[in-house]
């Protein structure tokens, strides 16, 4: 009887360890594409059919600085600055026609960078604050709010750039950027400080963070 009880106890421990290994805290997704929302994963948002580069895929991905630069048609050096060594980059674009404060709809550009460790992800998040692309926007019209309220991921900041809401955050071994572009056109066009479109940007960012 004692041996049977011991056996049952051992099996329980093994099963418990297996369940723990399957939990959401076991290191996050194995594939960066698991983090990328599909159409309607975030209510009202679909993969932008007008972006020929990303419309037909879960996301476009790249693993080198040169490939990332070609993908986003811009500089990627700040992401790969020593000592940071990104292992993967994913890029997707979304459209939403239901936002009341953007009569012609809105777009979101999502960039996700996977790094070798959480330390590298948080370090990259911190270092980019002084990079020229991020620094030059300070004060126009509103500097970074860091940390944000509510907090997204393990650390986040948001800025009204004058025509977008731009959220940066990190969680686990991922660094993420969400850029919300309300439509350009007749009033109510993008209005600096618009609380409603700011809330929409937060909702999208939080949905991505929940996947990490």
Task: Please give a handful of descriptors for the protein shown.
single chain, alpha+beta, Protein Transport Mog1p, Chain A, 27% helix
Structure description:
- This protein has 212 residues and is of the alpha+beta class.
- It has a single domain, classed as Protein Transport Mog1p, Chain A (3-Layer(aba) Sandwich), CATH 3.40.1000.
- Helix content is 27%, strand content 21%.
- It has five helices and seven strands, in the order H-E-E-H-E-E-H-H-E-E-E-H.
- Strands 1, 2, 3, 4, 5, 6 and 7 form a seven-stranded antiparallel beta sheet that branches.
- It is globular, with a radius of gyration of 20 Å.
- The termini are far apart.
- 33% of the residues are buried.
What integer value in Å does the Rg equal? 20 Å
Strand composition percent: 15-25%
Q: Percent range for helical residues?
A: 25-40%
Tell me how many strands there are. Answer: 7
Task: Provide a brief overview of the structure.
With 212 residues, this protein is an alpha+beta fold.
Draw up the topology in text:
Elements lengths: L1 H20 L24 E2 L12 E3 L2 H8 L15 E9 L9 E9 L3 H11 L3 H4 L19 E6 L4 E7 L2 E9 L12 H15 L3
Antiparallel strand pairs: 1-3, 2-3, 3-4, 4-7, 5-6, 6-7
């Amino acid at each position: 009887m004692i041996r049977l009880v011991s056996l049952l106890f051992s099996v329980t421990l093994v099963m418990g360890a297996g369940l723990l290994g399957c939990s959401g805290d076991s290191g996050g997704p194995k594939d960066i594409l698991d983090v990328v929302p599909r159409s309607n994963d975030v209510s009202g948002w679909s993969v932008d059919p007008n972006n020929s580069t990303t419309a037909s895929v879960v996301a476009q991905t790249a693993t080198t600085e040169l490939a990332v630069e070609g993908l986003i048609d811009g500089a990627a050096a700040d992401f790969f600055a020593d000592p940071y060594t990104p292992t993967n980059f994913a890029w997707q674009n979304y459209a939403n026609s239901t936002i009341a404060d953007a009569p012609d709809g809105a777009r979101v550009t999502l960039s996700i960078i996977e790094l070798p460790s959480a330390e590298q992800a948080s370090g990259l998040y911190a270092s980019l604050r002084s990079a020229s692309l991020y620094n030059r926007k300070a004060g126009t019209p509103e500097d970074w709010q860091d940390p944000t309220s509510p907090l997204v991921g393990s650390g986040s900041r948001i800025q009204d750039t004058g025509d977008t809401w731009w959220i940066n955050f990190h969680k686990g071994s991922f660094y993420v950027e969400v850029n919300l572009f309300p439509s350009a056109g007749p009033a109510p066009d993008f209005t600096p400080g618009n609380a409603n479109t700011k809330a929409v940007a937060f909702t999208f960012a939080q949905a991505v963070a929940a996947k990490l």
